[in-house]
Structure formats: C-alpha cells, structure tokens
Write a structure and sequence with these properties.
The complex is a heterodimer. Chain A is of the alpha+beta class. Chain A is built from 16 helices and eleven strands. The chains are: A alpha+beta, B alpha/beta.
Chain lengths: 459, 410
C-alpha cells in the first residue's frame, strides 16, 4: 500500500511539475469566471445561468478529459521511454500495484481539479442572482426552473395490442376490411401495423368537445407547498387561423369525482390559450397530488377550437416536480464527470502499456470523441446493419457498445433544464462506465503490462 | 542456499517482428556467484552483460533457462527487497530533487518514515550530495546523477548489489569512492555483481570475474589467479640508500634472477585525488558534488530489518541533522602515499604489487573512531546510529573529529 501511494504521489508531482496539468488549470481558472461575466444567454437571469452552466460544465469536462488522457498516457510512456521504470519495477512492488499507483495518481489529480473547478462554477452560479440584482419575478423564475432538480413523469404508454386485435376481428366480422387484406399475410400485417398506429394516436388525441386524462402514480414532490409543472406541446390536425388553441386543464385527484371517494386534495382548473407546436409549462400547486402520490391531469378540447388536438408522443405531456435540491443535483452531475475521467484514465493507461505517447493519445482521443456521440453511433450502426443482423450483432455491435456513453450521461443535459439526475441513474452510469467498461480496460492493461518485457530489446 | 546468484543455461534470443531468431544476446550462460563475493562481468560492448543483468532482475524474460537471485525469482517482492540495482545510466525523475528521489525509492521499499529520513541523510553524505539535495535532479551533471543512482541502489541496505557500469560519467574521485564503497560493502558481507568494460575498475575491486563475448563466458576465475605472474616478484621499499640497493641487487643476483630498480610512479588517480583534496582543504567553493569517504552507517554487516525498526522507532529522531560545511570532510586516501615510509616490512609487501592502491581501504573508515570500538562489538552499528541521531550534535562531532585530525596530519 505504501508503495502504491508512493507511485501515486510521484505521478501527481510529475503532472504538476512538468507543467502538463498547469496549462489546463490556468486555462480554466481564467476562463470560468470570465464566462460567468460575459455570458448573457437570452438576457434573463435564468437564461444567463443556463448558458453559463452549460458552457462552464462542458468546458471543464472537456478540458479535464483531455488532461486525463494526456497525463495518464504521458506518465506511463515517459517512464517507459526514459527508463525510470527499470529502477521502479525492480523494487518490491508488483506490476499491478505500480499500474494502480499510476491510476490512483491520475484520479487524485482529477478529483482535486474537478472539486476546484466545480466549486468555482457553483460559486459563480450561486452569486450570479445577487450580483445582477435581478427582479423578483426573474428570480422566482430562476428558482423554479433552474435552482431545482425536477423529476419528469411522462404518461405510461398504453398497451393497445388487445384493442387492435378486437378492432381487427370486429372489422373482419363486419366485412369492412380493405380488399385483399384477409387473404395475404403480408398485407394483413401491414394493415395491423397501421391500425395500431391509428389507435395509439387516438389515445393521444382529443377530438373537439372531448377530454383526455392522464393518470400518474409515484409523484413525490419534495415540498407540497411548492409548485409542480405540467409541460406540454400541442399538435393539431387543422391549423387554427391564429395558430392558437384554447384549452381547459384539470389537475388533481380525480378519484373523488370518479368513484366518489372522500379525498381532501383540491382539483385545480386552468383556462388558457397557447400557440401550437411550442412548449409551455403550467404551474400547478403541489398539494393537488394525493398523499399516495396519485395525480390526474385532464385536458378538455374546447369546442371553440374546431380542430383535433394531439399531444406528440414522448414529449407531448410531462409532469415536472421538484424532487431534490439544486446542490444535490449539481453534486451528482460532478460525479458523472468524475466517472468519465476514471474511464479515460483507465483507457489512457491501457493504451500506454503497448503504444507510444502520440499513438496512445490519438487512440484515446478517438475513443473519447466517439464516446461523446455514442448514441448516434449505435443508432446508425443498428440502422445500417438491419439486414446483416446476426453477423452484426456478434461482431461490430459488442465493440460499439464497449464505447463509453458520454452523451447518455451528459451532466449538462440535466442541469440546464433543471432535471433530476437521480441516484439510480448515477449508479447506472457508475455500473456501465466504471464497473464494466473501465474494469475491462483495466484488466486488459494488467494483462499486457504483466506479460511485457520492461527492458526493450537493446542489443 | 549456496549461491547469491545462479543461472542455469540462461539464454536470450532477440527475434525480429516475424518471430524469427535474430540475435543470441546471451547464450547458454551458467553463472554461479557465491555470497559475499565481488563478481565482475566483463566484456566488450554488446557482449550480453546488460542483458544478463536485466534477466536476473526480471526486466527481460529469458528465452530459455532460469536465473535465481538470493535463491529466488527477482520479481518476487520478498527477494527484490534485498536487491539494490544501479542501472547503466541514471534513470531519474527530472522533476524530483535529490532528497525526494531517495524518499520515493525508500517508500517503494516500504521503509518507515524515520528509517527513511535517517538513511537518506546518511546516503546523501556518502555520495557527497548533501549540499545540493534540494536541487531538481534534472539539473544535475552526469556524475552527480550517477551518485544519486548509487544512493538509490543502497537505500534498502541490500544484500545483493547489482551495478551496471557503475563508474561511467564519474570523475576519478567518484570512481575511487565507488570502488572503495564496493570493497567496504563486501567487507560488510554484501554480494556485489559488477558489469563493466572499464578493466581498471574491475581489477581493483573484484574477487572473481567472468569475461563474456557473444553471450558466452570465455574465461572465468579469481582475479589474482588470472593475473598474477607467479614467476616474478616485486619489492617495494621506502627511501633507502644506494648501498642498500646494491646489497639487495647482489642478493638477487645470487638467486640467479634479474633485477630492475626504479622509483615507483604514483598512479595518476592517486595524484589527482591528492590535488583535489588539497584544494578542498582550502575551502574552494564548488557547485558540484562534494567528495567524502563516509559510508552510510546503516549498511551494516548484519542488518536485521526488524531490529533496525524497533531501535529507530523507540528512539526519538530529531528532524534536523546538522549540516556541517562540506569542505571539512576530507578524502582519506590522501594520506596513503605519505603512509609508505612507515611500512618497511618487505616480506609483507611482496604480496601486494600496488601498496598505494590497496591501502586506502583500510584507512577510509573515519566513521568508526577507534575509541568507541569496543562498545560497538556489543551494539550494532545501527544502534549507534540511532543514538547518534537522537543526541546528534555531540555525537556527530565525535565521529567527525578523528577524520579532521587525520587530514590535518596529512
């Protein structure tokens, strides 16, 4: 243990004294506060904060990723190339301990720098509202939509399979199927597909004078005295002349209406007129949620509209509520970055066990950049290889899936819209990025380094 | 275990990219080095000396055969905790200073802080770098870096010391010091393996040598047996009168042998060392390494790690070790040339072809003053050190005084 620590401390000293890390540190120390001052966003307090947190976090994360790659690779390759390693591995230290010391050193550096820079970002964020003396309204908006960690609930997708079959049978019995559908298997399947889509759409659409009701369970606002938000977007079958739609909304526990149960929670009603195809957030007092976490949201398509109102799938309707504090969310976001860095440190060490400095850096950068678009990579590979499914799924796919999913676990994705980054998601990120992928890299590095002849051929 | 180092038909073949054999760097090498032996591995460049050493240390894996160090595999932490290795060049971390470098290696050996501190100071003294201990190693000259590499190899008080070209890049004094150090270490029961092509160095210190060429041992044996011309005798005397010379010549002629009489030349090495020592006595400032002949006290004949730890932990070690001006430390070998007139026993000298050479070994022990020597028999040297570092000032002066006195005589 003592020897591992010695190697770790030595790695830290190297990174700092050889000025590898200093460049990055100075850059960030200068850039972060400058960004805090210069970034205005859309001019509102919330916009300013969102822009800063987005750019600040991205920049910090990007630079620290580069730093981790460079330091982890430099520290091992330089030691191999300048042969200090001869005097180290001949001491009572196992090779895995040596590698672990290197990793520990890099991770320590990362932890310290990440703590420092996220503290800077946090401080800038916290002091921005005070510094700009924002109006009470703006401040309230920032509090509700930025300084919070909101969980989002989307309505569960209704299983329509049975309904489709019923409808199909009914149509068949009535002889209303299009000609040729019942004899041909292919055309029957495509007809059922179309039918499914139609019925699914029906679940999201409110005809004129009709009502849509979504029921949510497990709504757990942090504080019942605060608000929750209903985020929605209208789509229509026929564009209204002024592109606006009237809507009457209900929120509350509708079981008292439905079953006559004796529940004390109030039901709130809102009448509003909103532009179509635009996101809106409607503030609803959080005490509308029943004690057991039940909440129903209803939308009544006012006859005045004269058009069917459709809520697009996935993002058409969402209930947002404050589930945690901003600080806790921020902290978890920082951890997400740390996981990234640990992964990259393992990658760098693996690369430098068998590659020279420039090649190892190139490889790691390639993995890093592909990792930041891994979702796109996976999708496009999936799409392109639809026809070679078995070949593809046993060859390319596992490799592509080994890439880190930096985009999936991108902290700004959560902080900018003030979305809850839950512990479970954090644990998931840790599991995929560290427990599986980083450990695999690490084992490969150990294997290569153990078999390697440290003193290369000099005849 | 009989041998400190043993190899069984050790072979290293370097192959090319396709796996075809290219070079036999070491070919079927079987080597036995006994405990407490100073063994020299000689050979021209590319004869496989370094490759052998690297295989012994586990830096290279043998293609065939096996290498044992201290009865085991050198990659085993239990074994390599007892090995000191000085590579052919000083591979050091440029950004660490001398003290940090030694501290780093001390930590790798898991030495506790107090022991580490004590040894680092002693070693910096030994290699004469105390004055520049806080300078980054990257700014050191080659010789200074070499000294750090040596100190690094000694920090664990090794039982087996492997040195690859230990004297390259060192000035004559440094070379001399390393040689003296090797002899002293041998005296204290260490085994030393020396790879070199500097024949003079090897000749002075090694008990046995092996000459490698093309990865094979060409010749092996004791230095004295290999080099001694048994059919000749050399007599060295102090200044004696011409009549005495004539008388000796007559005696030799009576024995039916030829006789040549001349004044012996000082070795250039001896002369150089004397000159520098005189300059040092005049306190000429230098930015380089300072020469001392002190040996790290902890390099004890029977160092038992447990004991050292117990002693040192129980004794409070104060942080400051007094740093005296480096110039008070003197090179003891200076007096060797002056010491000659005292020795008039020709019979003894006949066995020592170079009296000036072998003498300093006996003389360079200023760290062990004669007065406390009886106590030393009971206590180990390390005990003494522990005391020394606890109530240092008084003790230190005592240790240093005989040394200063010595040089004063010179």
């Amino acid at each position: 243990m003592r020897s591992i620590w010695a190697v770790a401390v030595n790695t830290l000293k190297q990174a700092l004294r050889m000025k590898v890390a200093v460049v990055f540190i100075v850059l960030l120390i200068v850039l972060l506060p400058a960004m805090g001052i210069s970034m205005t966003g859309d001019g509102t307090l919330k916009g300013r904060l969102q822009t800063f947190v987005s750019y600040g976090f991205s920049l910090t994360s990007f630079l620290l990723c580069l730093l981790t790659i460079v330091v982890s690779i430099y520290s091992l390759t330089s030691e191999i190339q300048q042969k200090q390693i001869y005097t180290v591995v001949t001491k009572p230290i196992r090779r895995f301990q040596f590698l672990f010391g290197k990793l520990l050193g890099v991770v320590l550096l990362d932890v310290v720098l990440l703590a420092l820079f996220s503290a800077v970002i946090y401080a800038v964020i916290i002091y921005t509202p005070k510094f700009y003396r924002a109006s009470r309204l703006e401040r309230a908006r920032a509090d509700n939509e930025f300084f919070t960690a909101r969980a989002g609930l989307t309505p569960a997708e209704v299983d329509v399979a049975q309904e489709v079959i019923d409808t199909y049978n009914r149509l068949e019995k009535a002889g209303q199927l299009p000609p040729g559908v019942s004899d041909n298997k292919v055309s029957r399947e495509s007809y059922i597909k179309a039918l499914t889509q139609r019925i699914k759409l029906g679940k999201r659409a409110a005809a004129v004078g009709h009502e849509l009701v979504w029921e949510f369970n497990n709504v757990k606002p942090l504080d019942p005295n605060q608000s929750l938000f209903i985020r929605f977007k209208y789509d229509v079958s026929v564009n209204p002349p002024d592109l606006q739609v009237f809507g009457r909304w209900f929120a509350g526990d509708d079981r008292q209406v439905k079953y006559g149960a004796n529940v004390q929670t109030p039901i709130y009603t809102f009448d509003r007129k909103d532009l179509i195809r635009t996101f809106y957030e409607m503030e609803v007092p959080a005490d509308s949620v029943a004690e057991d976490g039940y909440l129903a949201v209803g939308f009544f398509n006012v006859p005045l509209n004269n058009t069917v109102v459709i809520f697009p799938p996935q993002e058409g309707l969402e209930v947002l509520y404050k589930a945690d504090t901003f600080t806790a969310n921020f902290l978890r976001a920082v951890f997400l970055i740390l996981f990234r860095l640990i992964f990259l440190a393992c990658l760098g060490i693996l690369a430098s066990t068998f590659l020279s400095f420039p090649v190892a850096v190139l490889l790691s950068l390639a993995v890093f950049f592909t990792g930041t678009i891994s979702g796109f990579c996976l999708e496009s590979f999936d799409f392109l290889s639809e026809n070679l499914s078995s070949v593809y799924s046993y060859t390319v796919r596992p490799i592509v899936q080994l890439l880190p999913q930096f985009d999936k676990f991108n902290p700004t994705k959560f902080l900018v819209p003030a979305r809850l980054l839950s512990w479970s998601l954090l644990a998931k990120a840790a599991l995929y990025m560290i427990c599986i992928k980083a450990v695999l890299l690490w084992l490969a590095a150990l294997l290569i380094f153990n078999c390697k002849e440290i003193a290369k051929v000099i005849v | 275990m009989e041998y400190a180092i043993e190899t069984f038909s050790l072979t290293k073949i370097f192959s090319d990219w396709w796996g075809r054999d290219k070079v036999y760097a070491v070919d079927d090498l079987s080597l036995q080095i006994r405990y407490n032996e100073v063994f020299g591995l000689l050979g021209p460049n590319g004869s496989g000396k370094t490759t052998t050493l690297k295989m012994l240390l586990g830096l290279l894996y043998p293609t065939k055969g096996r290498a044992l160090c201290l009865g085991g595999d050198a990659t085993d932490p239990k074994i390599n905790a007892r090995i000191g290795f000085m590579p052919e060049e000083s591979y050091l971390y440029r950004y660490l200073n001398a003290r940090e470098t030694l501290d780093f290696y001390g930590r790798l050996f898991g030495l506790p802080a107090k022991v580490r501190k004590m040894r680092i100071e002693a070693l910096l003294d030994t290699v004469g770098l105390k004055a520049v201990a806080n300078r980054p190693v990257g700014t050191f000259s080659k010789g200074m870096a070499r000294r750090i590499a040596l100190a690094q190899a000694l920090i664990n008080d090794p039982d087996l010391l492997m040195m690859d070209e230990p004297t390259t890049g060192l000035d004559p004094i440094g070379t001399r010091q390393i040689k003296d150090l090797i002899l002293q270490l041998a005296k204290r029961g260490k085994t030393v393996l020396l790879c070199s092509h500097l024949l003079a160095d090897v000749e002075d210190v090694c008990d046995r040598i092996a000459i490698l060429y093309g990865g094979k041992i060409q010749s092996e044996g004791k230095v004295k047996e290999l080099l001694q011309q048994t059919d000749k005798k050399q007599i060295t005397t102090g200044s004696i009168s011409d009549t005495a010379v004539e008388r000796i010549k007559r005696i030799v002629r009576d024995e039916q042998a030829d006789c040549v009489v001349s004044s012996p030349m000082d070795k250039l090495e001896t002369f150089f060392i004397r000159t520098v020592a005189e300059a040092q006595q005049l306190s000429s400032p230098t930015s380089g390494a300072v020469s001392t002949t002190q040996i790290g006290h902890f390099l004890a004949p029977e160092a038992r790690p447990e004991n050292i730890l117990d002693k040192l932990v129980s004794t409070p070690v104060s942080r400051e070790v007094p740093t005296e001006p480096a110039t008070t430390k003197q090179v003891a070998p200076v007096e060797t040339s002056q010491a000659k007139p005292d020795e008039k026993l020709l019979g003894k000298l006949t066995e020592q072809p170079e009296p000036a050479e072998s003498k300093p070994v006996v003389k360079t022990k200023p760290v062990e003053p004669k007065a406390p020597q009886k106590e030393q028999i009971k206590k180990s040297i390390l005990d003494r050190l522990a005391e020394c570092s606890s109530n240092q000032n008084a003790d230190r002066e005592q240790t240093d005084r005989p040394q200063a006195g010595d040089s004063g005589n010179a």
